[in-house]
Write a structure and sequence with these properties.
Elements lengths: L11 H4 L3 H17 L4 H4 L6 H15 L5 H6 L4 H5 L6 H17 L4 H18 L14 H5 L1
Helix pairs in contact: 2-4, 2-7, 7-8
Length: 149
């Protein structure tokens, strides 16, 4: 079994309220992606309509967070990194996607502990999907900044 958190499941799905609140979160995430001018570069990387991308994300996070494994039922094994390899994903693309996730999280009425846990897990997943190296000489950026902004 992998030790990477992004592959593990737990009861977070239920602590967040299950299907309806998670669907709302994903809907809000992709609404921000459609609306925010600063995420246009990552929005333009989507080959499918954002509504379809949102449905796939919901199906994935449902099982990933400990709920029904919908993605497996519809599409098979997630293999996220493989499914995203054709897209150049670096820090900028990761950060644009995470911005949408952060804004959607603010819209949710979830306890701080659960919101923080979800953001941490989304950050780990987004970091895993990066396939472009970035050289940040002299940068003090760290992963915690993504959760506290």
């Amino acid at each position: 079994m992998s030790t990477n958190t992004y592959l593990q499941t737990d009861e977070l799905y239920f602590r967040l309220g299950g299907e309806q609140p998670l669907r709302l979160f994903v809907t809000r995430l992709y609404q921000y992606m459609a609306q925010l001018p600063e995420v246009k570069p990552v929005r333009d990387l989507h080959a499918m309509p954002l509504s379809e991308a949102g449905e796939r994300l919901f199906n994935f996070i449902s099982g990933w967070l400990g709920g029904p494994k919908l993605y497996h039922q519809f599409y098979g094994e997630p293999r996220l990194r493989r499914r995203h390899m054709h897209i150049a994903i670096g820090d900028s693309e990761r950060d644009q996607w995470l911005l949408c996730a952060k804004k959607a999280l603010v819209d949710m009425d979830w306890p701080e502990t659960e919101s923080h846990e979800l953001m941490q897990r989304l950050l780990e997943m987004a970091n895993h999907l990066r396939n472009q190296s970035t050289l940040n000489i002299g940068s003090n950026s760290n992963n915690e900044n993504h959760c506290n902004q």
